[in-house]
Amino acid sequence: MKVLGIESSCDECAAAVVEDGRKILSNVVASQIPFHAAYNGVVPEIASRKHTEWIYNVVEESLDTAGLVPKDIDAVAVTTRPGLLGSLLVGLSFAKAFAWAQAIPLIAVDHMLAHLYAPRLETDTLIAHNNTPEYSFLGLLVSGGHSIICRADNFDDITVLGTTIDDAVGEAFDKVAKHYGFGYPGGAVIDRMAQSGDSGAFRFPLPNLHKGEHRYDLSYSGLKTAVINQLEMFRVEKNRDIKPEDIAASFQKTAVEILLRALFNAAEDTGLSTIVAGGGVAANSYLRARLAERQDLRCVFPPLELCGDNGAMIAGIGYHYLIRGEQSPLNITASARVSGFKKKYP
Predict the structure, then answer these.
(1) N- to C-terminal Cα distance for the chain?
(2) In this model, does residue 76 exceed pLDDT 70?
(3) How many CB atoms lie within 10 A of CB 277?
(4) Which of 38, 56, 39, 50 is nearest to 10 (CA)?
(5) Alpha-carbon dihedral of residues 76, 81, 86, 90, nearest 10 degrees?
(6) How much is the pTM?
(7) What is the average pLDDT across 279-293?
(8) Do 66 and 177 have their domain in common?
(9) CA of residue 27 relative to chain centroid, distance
(10) Which of 12, 70, 266, 301 could staple 309 via S-S, CB 3.0–4.6 A?
(11) Number of folded domains in the chain?
């Protein structure tokens, strides 16, 4: 069965066709980075307008690449939550129209669940290494909008163990990069700069979530404040010149260690030894290297092209709803947030 997946939750306008939940026939992603770079962050109104302009051509290209026409599609899966509401509504409206015109099922998808599904898609890398994860496992969902540590027992069955009480990790990367003029998107720029920096030049503090039960939770507002407003306080060698690469490397190291502290706590307490990462920050080279050091844990990452938002993961997970006999009504709407994906402190 061939499922068309549409993803428009933020600033990637994406569509893909996946066969039987595994085989990627096409995966088209139109990036809006040049349109948001001047603002060092995503501007919601610009994002939704670009989705409106591009969605038809992106879907058409995904069908052409797969060698298909609309009547060959068995169902349409589309992101309905979480994300920027205006952007979500563009993709959802198009998907509704496509499903109605072709008289095929519409399937609403939570794109955070889809990120955990991404490593199950067939790619040359995953097939060659037989790396497809089996349930149950720990999920690490890290992006500009979310930082979530969860237990996954099925494709649509997760239990959130920990999440951010303030900023998401990707958001912290973007804000630090914006403050110092490193460039946009911040995650990729800081990762690249850190390769030639000294991660020990600054000793930034880890958050102390001492109130209540926050063993698996995360916080980035303190780190962001330290890097932006209190840099000199945490410099190791006071007489040493401050290099942008050292700031990037030291910040990145601490940001990743915050994630790993909570993640390793969850692995210890649950006894789960397989970790599946997803989201844009899952492409971070330091995060991948640190997890690779843990010989007692099996860490599964999607290929780089499937870390960010894409239509293939939406189509792939949508297939499983389809074969279970589930579909969404045409009057379904989008939701910007999902309850439980963020916490308050204490």
Answers:
(1) 47
(2) yes
(3) 27
(4) 50
(5) 0
(6) 0.95
(7) 96
(8) no
(9) 16
(10) 12
(11) 2
